[in-house]
Design brief:
The complex is a heterodimer of chains A (249) and B (406). Chain A contains 10 helices and 10 strands. A 6-stranded mixed beta sheet of chain A has the order 6-7-8-3-9-10, with helices on both faces. In chain A, a hairpin with a 2-residue loop joins β9 and β10. Chain A starts with a helix and ends with a helix. Among the domains of chain B are: 60 residues; 111 residues, no CATH class. The chains are: A alpha/beta (249), B mainly alpha (406). Chains A and B meet through α3, β6, α4 and α6 of A and α14 and α15 of B. The structure holds adenosine-5'-triphosphate (ATP) and magnesium ion. The site of magnesium ion has 4 residues of chain A, from α2.
Chain lengths: 249, 406
């Protein structure tokens, strides 16, 4: 592999292993993601998808293998961890907005606290982001007053406010009513088109087919198959992949 | 009747329709069936009997003379009469701070603010008060109004911070006024806390017990969840030790043992302060357990979202976790603080003259033999007034903070 290609790779996972007690949730998972690439992770429930992307920003600690994000190796060093976390935004299935803060405060909190941004500047950025996700009029409400789709869009804006280089999505639409899924997927698609590097765990095959550069199939803690959407939906190699696709499509 | 009910717009018949509504309410709620009517009657007889005994006692038998005669003692214990003006100054300033705080909380001139200013006027009606006392109460009302309006002149964004400064300044000034500064012959001679007593002391013990134990309790609750084993173990030992010991034994230990824990040559801590230390340490352990309940009610996703944004552990605790955890436990904490207020009466057993201690000295005086009923009734009423105010204030606070949460 040439020097140039390595420099291009913003997430490098090499033989990552993770145990919960005796149970091995990740088995030698290796994946390299280039800058601006959109990678969708699919797989049956309990296959380790969440665990895998949560290792990348150290919400879970891996016990073997290497993870390097934007050149920063993920070690026990708290400074490295905090640096990686401020470069990798994460969007959760359950939104996890801060219920005691307004929408605007949810978005400005981290820029003010972590990036030491001035309050006015942070608010200006936040309003820009709310415009981008299409709900500027909700700025002064509390999360509890918004619909699920709106909350998830606020969560995306909150992550973007830290100007991350990478966005991690863990089933961002799974907790949403069907009619709200599209508004969130639209925002994600726009984000992908703007050149954001994205790692997305989802069951939305339409999104995977249309937006993903590559699809990763995981099963039982292993990365079974990686390929382009075209490869996946027409020409999957492994029996486990085919079985899964036949069940889900 | 029927015609009146059919023409509710006719103002002259309004009282009748009201009476009709009341009768309807009575029938629906108290006399809906035979059993309900019977219960209502039994309850009425019971209430009536109790009320008759109480009223008879209060207005016929009771010798209320003991209260006015010992009023100063009940209010401020042995605090010298010549220095009583300092207490009034403390009360004026308290009125002002209350006004400031109320403006901050209520925003507009709400009914509650009117209640606040009405309190001194209601107190002025107490029959045996001297003109001087009434004047002082009037000044307090003026000070409340002044505080309310001064805060109103500040720009909205500055009000919160200004109120905090007012309160902090008040606490310092209050302590200086109470304790005194300068020489024995100066304008504000020192008054040893041993002489503070009565309601003054009960309120001070409760107030400082609460405000000092609160941060300590929060720190212990966080310590109990710490990843560092040393801190966690120490917090657990502290909390479990204190919770296993009755307050009264802590008070005795505080009186006889506190000095052991202080460096050699440390000036002798006075009796009241020793009691306050015991109360604070006691209350902190309970605060810690209550706050822990709040911390455990925070979903893991909140921690994760804060971490994922790059907030440090300290930043997420201060900005995300604690605000939600404390909000969730306001009712429990207030309940605990009300018990603490009432528990301060135990200091009477270690020779400190709080409200209850003063009651006992009054009753020990041969002049006031046989007035236990009157004295204890008044003490109970005083405790009730402050306890009820606390729970009322907390309900308002809850409602206010409840806006938009989840
Ligand atoms: N904190 C934990 N403790 C113990 N086991 C865990 C923990 N978190 C996850 N696991 C286990 O690890 C495995 C992988 O879980 P993970 O949440 O990564 O699956 P997933 O692919 O995201 O599934 P889903 O589609 O249901 O979200 C599962 O078998 C799960 O039971
Ligand atoms: Mg998952």
């Amino acid at each position: 592999m040439s020097e140039n290609e390595t420099a291009d790779e913003i997430i490098i996972c090499q033989d990552v292993c993770k145990w919960f007690g005796d149970f091995q949730a990740l088995k030698d998972c290796s994946l390299r993601v280039k800058a601006q690439e959109v990678v969708v992770i699919i797989g049956p429930s309990g296959s380790g998808k969440s665990t895998f992307i949560r290792c990348i920003n150290r919400l879970e600690e891996h016990q073997a293998g290497d993870i390097i994000v934007d050149g920063i190796p993920l070690t026990r060093d708290v400074r490295n961890i905090e640096q990686i976390r401020s470069e990798a935004g994460m969007v959760f299935q359950q939104f996890n907005l801060f219920p005691h803060l307004t929408v605007l405060e949810n978005i400005t909190l981290a820029p003010i606290q972590v990036r030491k941004m001035k309050k006015e500047e942070a608010q200006e950025t936040a309003m820009g982001l709310l415009n981008r996700v299409g709900i500027p009029e909700q700025a002064d409400k509390h999360p509890g007053q918004l619909s699920g789709g709106q909350q998830q869009r606020v969560a995306i804006a909150r992550s973007l406010a830290m100007s991350p280089k990478i966005m991690l999505f863990d089933e961002p639409t799974s907790a949403l009513d069907p009619e709200m899924i599209k508004e969130v997927l639209d925002v994600m698609q726009e984000l992908a088109e703007s050149g954001m590097t994205m790692l997305v765990v989802t069951h939305e095959m339409g999104f995977a087919r249309e937006v993903a550069d590559r699809i990763v199939f995981m099963d039982a803690g292993e990365i079974v198959e990686v390929g382009t959407p075209e490869h996946f939906f027409t020409n999957a190699q492994h029996d486990r992949t085919k079985l899964f696709l036949s069940q889900i499509l | 009747m029927t015609t009146a009910a059919e023409t509710p717009s006719d103002r002259s018949v309004l009282p009748i329709t009201e009476r009709y509504a009341l009768l309807g309410w009575l029938r629906r709620n108290l006399f809906s069936d035979l059993f309900n009517s019977l219960l209502t009657l039994v309850a009425l007889v019971f209430i009536f009997t109790i009320a008759r005994i109480l009223l008879r006692w209060a207005f016929v038998t009771a010798e209320w003379g003991v209260i006015p005669a010992n009023f100063n003692l009940i209010m401020r214990g042995q605090y010298p009469a010549a220095e009583a003006w300092r207490l009034w100054l403390v009360i004026y300033l308290l009125g002002a701070v209350a006004g400031v705080t109320w403006r901050l909380i209520s925003g507009q001139f709400s009914g509650a603010a009117r209640v606040l200013i009405a309190i001194p006027f209601v107190l002025m009606l107490i029959p045996f008060f001297s003109m001087g006392t009434r004047l002082n109460l009037f000044i307090t009302a003026v000070a409340s109004a002044a505080g309310y309006y001064i805060e109103g002149y500040l720009p909205i964004q500055r009000r919160g911070r200004a109120a905090v400064y007012f309160i902090l300044a008040y606490l310092v000034i209050m302590l200086l006024l109470l304790r005194g500064v300068g020489a024995e012959e100066g304008p504000m001679p020192p008054v040893s806390p041993i002489l503070w007593g009565g309601l003054l002391l009960s309120l001070l013990l409760a107030f400082f017990g609460i405000t000092l134990s609160f941060p300590l309790g929060v720190a212990l609750a966080l310590g109990r969840q710490s990843k560092l084993p040393a801190i966690r173990v120490m917090s657990v030992i502290y909390i479990e030790f204190i919770r296993g010991v009755p307050l009264i034994s802590l008070l005795f230990m505080g009186q006889v043992m506190l000095q052991l824990f202080l460096p050699d040559g440390f000036p002798l801590v006075d009796r009241v302060l020793r009691a306050l230390v015991a109360i604070t340490l006691f209350s902190a352990a309970y605060t810690a357990e209550n706050v822990r309940g709040g911390l455990q009610s925070i979903p893991r996703g909140q921690y994760e979202a804060a971490q994922a944004l790059g907030l440090s552990a300290y930043q997420s605790t201060i900005n995300i976790i604690l605000p939600q955890a404390l909000r969730a436990v306001i009712p429990v904490l207030v309940g605990q603080f009300i018990s603490l207020f009432k528990d301060t009466t135990l200091v009477a057993l270690v020779g400190i003259f709080d409200l209850l201690g003063i009651a006992r000295t009054i009753l020990a005086n041969p002049d006031w033999l046989g007035t236990q009923q009157e004295v204890y009734a008044i003490i109970a009423v005083l405790f009730w007034i402050f306890s009820y105010s606390m729970s009322y204030a907390s309900r308002r606070l809850e409602r206010r903070l409840g806006v938009g949460v989840r």
